[in-house]
Every structure is written in C-alpha cells, then in structure tokens.
Task: inverse folding
C-alpha cells in the first residue's frame, strides 16, 4: 500500500469530442498535484469527420510523447437522444483509447456522473460547478481558466482518477473527505448530509488560500 501512496503518476485526462477535445495532464506525487498542461484541441473547422479523428489521434500521440503519461483517464460512453451524436462521440473515444494503447498506456474509464460526484459531491452538478471546484482544488488563477469547458471537463476526469488512487486520503488513514478535513483541523466535526463531501472540500480549499 505504501508504494501506491508515494508512486509518481502522470495522468492524461481526455474529454472526447469530434469538434473540440478537452485534454489535461496532471503530475501527482503522493498528495501533491501539479497541472502540467490543459486545454482544448480544436478541429471543428475540418468538414470531414474522419480527418478530425485523424488529427486528434496524431495530436494525442504528440501529447503522449511529450509528457509520457502513466495512464489515460477518459469519460466513458454516455447516452444521447441523438444516436448520430452518440456514435460520433464513441468514435472520438475510440481514437483516444487507440492512441494510448498504441503507446502501451493503460486506460481507465469514468462515467460523467462519477466524475461529477468525485469533484463536487453531486453526480448531477453542471459543468460550471465542476470547473469552479477544480479552480479551488488546484488553485488555478482566474486568468488561466479556459473559456471552453471541455478543458475543465478533461481536468476533472484526470483529477477524478487521482482521487480514485486514494490520495491524499490514504496517506492520512482517512476513509472520506470529511474525516480527512477533520484530521487536518479544517473543520470542527464531521459534516453529514448529501452535500457533506462538497462542504468539506470547500472548507479545505478556503483554509489553504
């Protein structure tokens, strides 16, 4: 278990899309997290959908060669009312997964609800709420926040994977965010209720500033 806690991870988070693909690179070491890069790869001006997929594939290979991620964290398939939209997103997911596997990088999928729950404590949170919490967690200056939420979606997927590794909770022997916050002296007593995780996380980030 100790080896897991101190191991270095470079997490590539991808929010797949056929016009805009969000990407993020997180470097983690124990409880320390650093954003190496995040943004949106824009291919919407290309008319041919397969040309878009090809450009995304080559871009991801360049990102992989530059940062050498240890894992790809990607949003899993979602259900859309428009079957054609869903098929296109699945194609983009497949391209991202293929780019990672071509470099022998393992893949971990997370549902949109799981990512939202991990970041905000609410599986039905909107994209702006996720972006706001990530800004708090990772201390991102307002001027560095991207305009397109595809980027923060990708960052959320990468951060969700980081949380699944158990950092920083396992380092402190805590079972959840509220216990960890209490151990750190950030709250007086464990919070309860459906928004407990969100309240604890927000108190923790406020204390750090």
Result:
């Amino acid at each position: 278990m100790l080896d897991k806690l101190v191991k270095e991870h470079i997490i590539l988070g991808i929010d797949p899309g056929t016009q805009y693909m969000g990407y993020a690179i997180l470097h983690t070491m124990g409880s320390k997290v650093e954003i190496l890069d995040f943004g949106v790869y824009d291919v919407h001006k290309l008319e041919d959908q397969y040309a878009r997929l090809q450009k995304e594939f080559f871009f991801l290979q360049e990102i992989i060669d530059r940062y050498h991620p240890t894992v790809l964290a990607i949003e899993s398939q979602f259900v859309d009312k428009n079957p054609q939209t869903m098929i296109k997103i699945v194609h983009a997911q497949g391209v991202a997964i293929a780019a990672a596997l071509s470099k022998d990088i393992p893949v971990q999928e997370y549902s949109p609800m799981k990512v939202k729950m991990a970041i905000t404590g609410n599986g039905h949170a909107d994209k702006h709420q996720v972006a706001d919490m990530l800004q708090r967690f990772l201390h991102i200056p307002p001027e560095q926040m991207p305009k397109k939420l595809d980027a923060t979606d990708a960052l959320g997927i990468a951060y969700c994977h980081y949380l699944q590794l158990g950092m920083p909770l396992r380092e402190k022997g805590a079972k959840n965010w509220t216990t960890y916050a209490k151990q750190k002296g950030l709250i007086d007593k464990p919070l309860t209720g459906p928004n407990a995780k969100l309240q604890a996380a927000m108190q923790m980030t406020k204390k750090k500033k």
Remarks:
- The chain has eight helices and five strands.
- Residues 1-5, 186-195, 204-209 have pLDDT under 50 and may be disordered.
